[in-house]
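Example record

The entry below shows one chain as it appears in the dataset: sequence first, then structure tokens.
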Amino acid sequence: MLTRRHLGQFLAAPALLPAPSLLGADDGKWTAEWDAAILSAAVARLDAAFDPREDMLRRQVGSEYRYHTNMRSREVHPTRDTLEYALLLLEAGGADRAARAARIVERILSLQETDPSSNWYGLWGYYVEEPAPKMSPADWNWADFNGSLLLLIEYRHGSRLSPALRRNVREGIRHAARSVQRRNVSMTYTNIAVQGSFVTLAAAQLLDDAELRRYAAERLRRFAAAIDLTGSFAEYNSPTYANVTIVNLTRMRMTLRDSEDLELVDRIHTRAWLHLGKHWHTPTRQLAGPHSRSYSTDIGAPLWIQKALGGRVAFASLGDLKARRIEPSAETAIHDYRCPESVAPLFLQAGPPRQHREIFLPASAPVRPVQGTTWLAPDLCLGSVNRGDFWIQRRSLLAYWGGNRRPARFVQARFLKDDYDFTSALLYTVQQDNCILGLVNFRSPGGDKHPNLDPIENGEFEASRLRFCLDIAGAPKGAKILTGDSHLAVDLGGAKLWLNVREAAFRRQKPALSVEHEGDRLMLSIDLLRANAPQRVRWSETPAAYAVFSLAMEGASGSLEQFQRKCQAMSYEGSLSKGRVSWRTPAGWIGLTGNQSVKPVAEQDRAFSEWLDGKPVPLVRLSDERLA
């Protein structure tokens, strides 16, 4: 199984493919031949990476920053990918493959921490070269991910293993399940909440463990109750982790026997597909924003969605698979993905322009629940979350346009500290249709590159540049841009964008709006700090640090000049220092409140409010049907 980071790279891999609408027309419905083609290609690809001296796959890691691991610029042997390779060898069949798979499984089991008194009980490191105690810190999710793979090996191929190895596999499963139970992750950690539920439920059934069974059944019901708080998912609308969630629900449907568990799993499974369907933008075949976590803004060619819909949404043809013009995740071949027929029309029919609001996370007044708003129209989709941040995995404000071509055309809001996304920057928005009013401010304490693993010490750091920017992929070369003192309009080719800096401050700097080409990207930036050499920033000496902006997008019809005049004619009132800012859009007045200074995130959240025509923005549940 691809690691989370490599999964992001994989999702971006089909970028050179033709547009999805040109694919799949020769193949019709999904058949076993498709699964066989995916499996054959995956095994051949991994065969080439196998290191027989270690009975492991090998990979070269680069020098870039990565969470949890200190491995840089060297060859490594990954545990999770190698264990999935063993599963794929068993799926492919043949005595030689089964023998290699057995050696791999023995090797992987030898790397698990099996001492119940250990702080890392049940875990593996990412790599042979870096066991869990040497990581920074260990990733507890590896009990869930590797445990789930061992369960698939046992449930699907256990009878092909030697009795001794099978006993060891079951012991590895037991250790992983107990690790999951000990950790007892929050049910708001959606993908791991579901994956750990699969591990503990399937392990309890396999091992006939009554105590683990009680825990696992209660955990599944706690997860359903967590969904019931809002009707949706805390780890919302994630192109990567929606698949992790759905594949583990699918695994439960494929392996569990308890009828009550299966009934609840089916209800959660339908809700997960409904959640995706409501955000699916048929014209671009992208999952419209906002995304809680994403590794590639372009969803690429997710064949698990194609399989789940029986080929009715086509990203690739059987010929593409056989010619290996695409490298889909091998788990697509193994799992019985099925989109409920009640939800399928959301993926198949574009429909008229519509706005979708959805609560993701609850909150206690005066803090607003985390809610997303998405505008879906024929030419574009535009989505934002009312309370978000700029962690590199977030897509708190995101738009797609330009049809279903690959690579995708998109606009992503980011906040960069020098050249990396800055997680201490926060984003608050109010959106109505295709218009967004936004506030960027900062939290302290807070993180640098990661919200928790990379804290800023004592509220001090160095930076040469701090900027809120719109990162635009796919704008035509020589795109027409109309600029003013604090605003600009851009013809994106098939869509138009308008950005206006309403007010901004940072220390003694005067924030400025700039337009730059960086590689193949067009960057529209509001620079809060820009210097030739690193500057020492002390939050305690920064009385004001914020920016307020308004943004609008429109389709291809009409000229850029007309669009600019229309946007400039929309009235804007107030200032943060006076309590509230408001913007009159064609769909009504939208307004927000918030802080100008750096504060703990809880204070920033309490200060934020969002308004539509003088009333709090409505809070909308995805569904009122209770699961638990």
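Notes for this example: The chain has three domains: 1-6+42-182, 184-351, 360-616. The chain is about 30% helix and 25% strand.
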